[in-house]
From TrEMBL:
Location of the Transposase zinc-ribbon domain: 62-109
Organism: Paenibacillus residui
Listed InterPro entries: Transposase_Zn_ribbon (IPR024442)
Region Disordered: start-end pairs: 1-21
Descriptive protein name: IS1595 family transposase
Lineage, opening ranks: Bacteria, Bacillati, Bacillota, Bacilli, Bacillales
Length: 329
């Protein structure tokens, strides 16, 4: 759709699957199940490579002081700056677990982790940074059960750590709208819980936009996968105004060409977008055994955060850690 699409016009996004390239409902579902299993098989991580990466990570962050230095440089790359008056000098109070900085001008005190996902947490910085490392790992990823065992913390603590990280990544994603040539379409994210689900109608499936910024060769440089708001749907249909809302929230006003198709499985000649959604679906089901609608968007944002850094060929850990240091979650 284009920017000036009529709000009251509805798309045929929910045409019966048998109309999609002449395939039947069962054959379409079975094909997706087989694809999911195939991706599961090829997405097995290299355990030896992971151990090498973990060893390198632990050498980089051996102590709490190593983590403190990283946070300080990320938070104040040009030196201390008071969050209240912007004065550049402070007294350092070291009587607490983490340094406390008192502004020499206004006497305002601020913690090193104030305004980060770690604010108010009693978990050690080394464990937080290890969680950043595990989430940043593109092949493995992690869930709360695995993280709980890895960090030797309770499941509740592990879940809270991951939730705060994903909230930070969602906020970082929102601050980076799509630019330039923007194309995409709609599809469905649905869980694969068992072979029996082949016969089901996927009551938990969620319509999503899969949209990308493209380079001159029509290769995706940034991808967003966003769930459609409930108010933009009715009786199994999606309003075209849903596309307008997506453009308003996630596309830069300076974008030079925006074309988002609202019919199901139409991706404006960018077939790789469907593959990205399938990979996201395979990842959520392999690592988390499926995700409910309440938190699905946070998991999709996490997937896209790593994917986009891969597409841009930049280090994932440092970007992820800095995203977590810019928000209180």
């Amino acid at each position: 759709m284009s920017r000036n699409a009529d709000k009251d016009c509805r798309s045929d996004v929910h045409r019966k699957p048998e109309m999609d390239a002449g395939r039947s409902v069962d054959s379409k579902i079975i094909q997706d199940v087989l694809l999911n299993l195939s991706m599961d098989r090829y997405s097995k991580w290299d355990e030896s490579a992971f151990k090498q990466e973990e060893k390198a990570f632990r050498n980089r962050f051996k102590t709490e002081e190593d983590c403190v230095q990283f946070i300080y440089q990320a938070k104040w790359p040009d030196g201390f700056s008071c969050p209240r008056c912007e004065h550049r000098q402070a007294y350092v109070i070291r009587s607490r677990r983490l340094p406390l900085y008192e502004c020499r001008s206004c006497r305002h005190q601020t913690s090193l982790i104030a305004g980060t996902v770690m604010e108010g947490s009693r978990t050690s910085l080394c464990k937080w940074f290890l969680a950043f490392h595990l989430v940043a790992n593109t092949e493995r990823g992690t869930n709360a059960v695995q993280l709980s065992s890895f960090l030797q913390v309770t499941y509740k603590t592990a879940w809270a750590i991951l939730h705060k990280i994903r909230q930070a990544l969602s906020q970082a994603d929102h601050k980076q709208p799509l630019t330039g040539v923007v194309k995409g379409g709609t599809a469905f994210h649905r869980p694969f819980r068992s072979a029996a689900s082949v016969l089901g109608l996927y009551p938990e499936q969620r319509p999503v936009f899969v949209v990308a910024s493209l380079d001159k060769g029509a290769v995706p440089q940034q991808v967003k996968i966003k769930t459609v708001r409930p108010e933009d749907m009715e009786d199994g249909r999606i309003y075209r105004s849903a596309g307008e809302h997506f453009i308003k929230e996630h596309v830069s006003p300076d974008a030079i060409d925006v074309d988002i198709e609202t019919r199901r499985y139409h991706y404006q000649r960018v077939p790789s977008l469907r593959n990205y959604l399938r990979k996201a679906r395979a990842w959520t089901n392999r690592v988390f055994n499926g995700i409910g609608p309440k938190y699905l968007q946070h998991y999709l944002d996490e997937f896209c955060f790593r994917l986009n850094l891969q597409l841009q060929k930049v280090p994932i850990f440092d970007h992820l850690a800095r995203a977590c240091l810019r928000t209180s979650g």
